[in-house]
Amino acid sequence: MPAKADRIGDLYIAEKGNVNRMAEKKxxxxxxxxxxxxxxxxxxxxxxxxxxxxxxxxxxVEQAKKRIEKLEAEKLxxxxxxxxxxxxxxxxxxxxxxxxxxxxxxxxxxxxxxxLPKDCDILYINDSKKLSAAKREELYDVIMEKxxxxxxxxxxxxxxxxxxxxxxxxxxxxxxxxKLSVKPDVLLNDAVKIPQVDIRQVPIxxxxxxxxxxxxxxxxxxxxxxxxxxxxxxxYQRKMLLGKGKLEVQAFF
Length: 253
Description:
Strand content: 5-15%
Low-confidence stretches: 1-17
Number of strands: 5
């Protein structure tokens, strides 16, 4: 019996020592640690500090738990965004197609084509219009890294004037498909059916909000076009300083 009591006493002392060591760490340090911790390590973070009774630490642990709740909600949202990908899973390579630039008065129309891996685990993909510029840039890099294949196509303002915006959009989409390193077995398109394409197509109204593949394509197209417009702006300003801008501004419209 005394031996058992000794073991219980040892455990208590060890546990008390762990709490004391945690208490030695300042609350500000723990707060910074939470900011730096990766999402997958949040459970370990909570386990390390949930027995610290300081009110500031209790609040930090609650923040960590809320982060986990948001993370789980995001995982569920992404799974719901894979509805069409699951429906056509037997088709092999599934490619999302979307475009940007049909509405603006200046610049090209740009189309993106993306084939994501079957086990795609990229979080926060969404319709590019619902994302901040910083988040689009971040996701662009992740998509480019993890995608099975990507393609970008575009039609210039002059081409849009020549064949009209709808035909220019189709042309940009066909170019994006042609630049994929593998041929897709099915295309998930944002609303349209692309003529002169011999691949099975599934037009989805508001597809960039319903398909993770189309949403990924919308992000690539949007970031690509934004970069182009930034470069056009720099070039236009340079030419304005040289007194040539007014003569060449029509090239951007």
